[in-house]
Design a protein that fits this description.
This protein is mainly β. It contains 2 helices and 12 strands, in the order E-H-E-E-E-H-E-E-E-E-E-E-E-E. It is globular, with a radius of gyration of 17 Å. It starts with a strand and ends with a strand.
Length: 168
């Protein structure tokens, strides 16, 4: 799923530059349907602070979404869309048996280009990456598959097409 929304951010340099104190930005990312009732898993940073979450599926269907739950520690969020019919769900695998060097596939919407696929290998497992002074991504699957702005929230797949992680 392609996720897009508008949010207002605070412009920290506004006082010095004469610019507006806040700024409207369009955020975008990816998500993956995990329940046929319309539950979509994505990264929290994709939908955090977004008033109107617009979700477009690969088949072109558009929905209004709302965040129903989130976990700041793992940077994950659950978005709900209402559909008249059950939605297709991704097959999930496990990350417990992954090996360094194993082929993985990243799917997402980098730079707004929908349904982009990149391939790589697992470079390392259980990687901890500091994000800022207060947050750290823990126990990550590091890959050399291209992950760019807009890929966040999309699935990382094994060669069988099973979701084994969420891109960030």
């Amino acid at each position: 799923a392609h996720i897009q929304g508008h949010k207002t951010i605070r412009n920290e340099t506004a006082a010095f530059s004469g610019e507006a104190a806040t700024q409207q930005v369009i955020g975008m990312g990816s998500g993956v349907i995990v329940d046929p009732r319309g539950f979509i898993l994505t990264n929290l940073h994709v939908v955090e602070g977004v008033a109107d979450i617009d979700v477009t599926l690969a088949n072109g269907k558009k929905f209004a979404g709302r965040m129903v739950d989130h976990d700041p520690q793992t940077d994950l969020a659950l978005v709900k869309v209402n559909s008249d019919e059950p939605l297709p769900v991704i097959k999930t695998g496990t990350s417990s048996d992954l090996l360094v060097g194993e082929t993985v596939i990243a799917i997402g919407n980098p730079f707004g280009y929908q349904s982009t696929v990149t391939v790589g290998i697992i470079s390392q497992l259980h990687r901890n990456i500091p994000v800022n002074g207060t947050q750290e991504y823990r126990n990550l699957i590091q890959t050399d598959a291209s992950i760019n702005p807009g890929n966040s929230g999309g699935p990382l797949l094994n060669i069988l097409g099973d979701m084994i992680g969420v891109n960030v």
